[in-house]
Amino acid sequence: MLERIVGFQSRLRSNGFAAAVLMHPRDVYYFAGTGQPCNLLIPAKGEPILLARRALDWVKTDSDIATIIKGSGGKDLRLALQSAGVFKNGVKLGLSLDIVPTVLCRKLEQSLPECTIEDVSPLLLEQRMRKDEKEIAAIRSAAELFQRAHEVMMQELRPGVTELEVASKVYAALRRGEHEGIPRFRRWDATLHPDGLVISGSNTWRISGHAMTVTGVGLSPSVPWGPSTKPLASGETVVIDVGINYHGYHADIARTYIVGKATAEQKRVFDVIKQVYSAIFAQVKPGVTGQALFKTAWEILVSHGLEGYFQGYGEMKGNYVGHGIGLEMDEPPVLDANCTTVLAENMTIALEPKVIIPEWGAIALEDTAVVTATGCEIFCPVTRELFEVT
Questions:
Q1: Distance CA 357, CA 364 (A)
Q2: pLDDT tens across 181-205, in order?
Q3: Fewer CB near the last or first residue (10 Å), C or N of the chain?
């Protein structure tokens, strides 16, 4: 992970940071390779220092960081900064202010009044957009696990079975394939069931405030999205949208099924979504913007008169077509109508065109891919079709 640290140090120097203090577990894992509770000090120049809050021996086994010491609070960080040679009045320290709790930020400010603390998360997340070979391999393995979920869907969908029963079997199959069971998000208010979303019939078009997508209604107002106890009925669409965490890295996959035989209208709408899917994935390559991908999708939906239902409807309508993905499900860039971020080789993205039509249902198709030198590689082996489960 030395290359990651060296690259980040260059970003720190270019933006006037003397050092970054990383506390968020995903940030620490990215650079230090341990999920144990730690703080990581990365100076703009010199060697990083990993402070293990607990489980010091375990941390030393996990991480390749040369200097690993026991420490947690502001006093220990002050000593580490002094040891790194970057502690003096007026220095700018980086903290992931997008995710670290305010109480911890305030404690650090009180412990280090000589320093100015500013947000370093944009630099970190920008670096994380481009993955190395090991990260890409893990994301590919996560996507390949969807085959297990698909097999459950093909075996278990039938009238009378509940969304929750199917979702529970999906989770068991994924867990046996080493799905970590914890989809991770950068957003503080985002959560997802470990079995993802298995949503049927009328629940496919009831959009919860969790996101502008197929959400389902969940089991209670406490978590108003996800599978419910609603039984499946013949002729209904069933959408599965699952975030799979394999050894820390995620894939985001969705497919649509029919309980029984599909109607002509269900097939027509699916064909439109597949056309969108094929067009935007064919467009992915270095130099393309998220804005361009959205525009392509939008124009196809307009030509079929379905733009009013693209990614939701009414007030519950999104203007995106995908997002970055990796250590967290919701990494940048958000590939929406305003996204000017330029895709680059080794970025990993999820593209998810869908339509959600009130009183009718939803059709969704999503895959995770890596941007290559000339296009992209889609990871999931499950075919892109409307699956009829009879």
A1: 12
A2: 999 999 998 899 999 999 999 999 9
A3: C
